[in-house]
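Subject line: Sequence and fold of a protein, written as structure tokens
Enclosed: The protein record, placed directly beneath this head.
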Amino acid sequence: MTCPEGLPVGDGWVTAPSSGLVRFPYDGGVIAEAPIGDADLAARAVEHAATVRVQVAELPAGVRRQVLAGVAGTLAEAVPELVDLLVLETGKPRVDCQVEMARAVATWQSAADEVAHLHGETVPLDLQPSGEGLFGYWTRRPVGVVVGIAGFNYPVLLASHKIAPALAAGCPVIVKPAPATPLATLRLVHLVREQLVAAGAPAGAVQLVTGDTEVGRTLTTHPEVAAVSFTGSAAVGHRIARDAAPRKVVLELGSNAALVVAADADLDAAADAVVRGGFYASGQACISVQRVVVVAAVAEEFEKRLAERLPDVVVGDPRDAGTRVSALIDETATERVLDWVARARTAGARLIAGGVRDAGGRCIVPTLLADVPDGEPAWDEEIFGPVVCLRTVPDLDTAYDLVNASRYGLHAAVYTSGLRAALEAVERLEVGGVVVNEVPGYRSDIAPYGGVKDSGIGREGPRFAIEEMTVTRMAVIRP
């Protein structure tokens, strides 16, 4: 699967001002040379999007649905090739790349379905005397040019959650992939543009610009941009929100997801969930299990069962089907995670397992810490690596308070056999999603997804992202 040289800016592909090497995180080998854009090219992309804004907004619903469904179909056919590419450029285990592609296809199909549900409603204006004799209704209109900025960990899926809703809403969109992982996203955009042209729509409705922070700043502050959808760190997201104002922003900023184990929980199921949910994608997922809060009555037994499972987690080459943990995106990330583990131990945390590199020196062995103090980044911040922290509390009430004592609030989970405890978790936990008897990393791509507090603002999922990328227009008519 190939795409043209350069970057998809305007209705064609343009030569990038520079290029850089994309490397396989597992061994540092060169995968390809990728085009790198600059601020001038970013501005050019926004200006082109502005020129086609009206044309894209006027695309019939049937055409938009045709394009989105067409992408879902062609993307499904390209899954094997894109999985191979994702493994190489992200270093993520093959099984996780397969999951990413399956979810990306479902996201495009869902966006196609949602085109038929984009509508407004009438308003009973005569509830007030001033509205007697008037007829009112509202519709949803495209917000305008959208910028989507995606993270490195799920490049195709995250880009899909930006591009597909924008097209469904009738908005031209410019996507900026993470500098380390541009290749699969370039191929995705090429597929989308082919479907646009086949449907008689402008290829420039979707563009892509790679580059550094100056490219991102140009995209998010350009006066022609109407909305920004960003997935990444809280620090960068906060800066984007400030710089982009008064434009609309949708921010998915990660978390330090918690899993609560109640005294009546199925301990084997909960231990399996921590292993499954803490180490998928090598821990580089914003809703992977990071904090495990266990009620004291079962804490000792739960720790034992969890520790027994860790040696079964296969660490190694992400190209191997059995691998579950591999190298992080780069050496800087690896050193940071190991430093946070060392800091936690110095502060009094107990190391149960891991905390070191594997025999090859490329990967961090699945790590389990206990009693990490407040104030340590391994507990307070998003570690984004294969590290899980255990803490014991006297009861569920304390557990829920501890989960909430975080600046983040994306997803949380509780394992319990009691309906009262489950419903209390749904009511009390200050997060965007509460998952009962499953990992906090469970996400349905058609559901509203997003956080509270420093985990962001706005919601993804095609239906909800489309709402973020549209504005209501009120019509008032005196017959």
User: Anything to note?
Assistant: The two ends are 57 Å apart (CA to CA). The chain is about 40% helix and 20% strand. The chain has a mean pLDDT of 97. The longest helix spans residues 94-114.
